[in-house]
Amino acid sequence: MSTTKTxxxxxxxxxxxxxxxxxxSSTREQVHTALREQSAIREQPCDLLYIDAxxxxxxxxxxxxxxxxxxxxxxxTQMRIRHLREVYLIGHYLDLGLFGIKVPEVxxxxxxxxxxxxxxxxxxxxxxWGGWVGYGIQERRDRLQYARWWNENxxxxxxxxxxxxxxxxxxxxQPGITYVDYGPADLSF
Length: 189
Prior knowledge:
Structural class: alpha/beta
Strand order of the largest sheet: 1-2-3-4-5-6
Radius of gyration: 16 Å
Oligomer: single chain
Helix content: 25-40%
Order of helices and strands: HEHEHEHEHHEHHEH
Shape: globular
């Protein structure tokens, strides 16, 4: 039995996660260079590449290119989606190669439930089977095996950026959420 924790378990345990943030315009070579440089500086491998679709232009090609480049070095990618109203697109984004999703500006439990449904395969959620695409699928060629693995390992988080969210946090944190972080700039308004 392996004693190595999964990335999801490390999030749940509150362990330090080494993330590298890159712009959507990053090339394959820039992704590789940034991941290698940060690993050398920290003297440990990067755990996660982070990209942000909320605060700049993004195309599916950008997401796919960056995810593929990071996967070549064994690093999964997480993306903050553009807006909480785009939770219905989570399955689509995951099919591009993302391992994690962060939902911004969450205020109500219905958004969380919609995100969980779009992120997880049945019986946890309602994510549609996308064929042989997505992070980690090449190592798990059985559809049901992959769905179980995904449901146990995928990273789903959300961002608290309003007083309303702070006051209703107990209703927002639901099974299936890996982590919550907050936006101090937005909260300072």
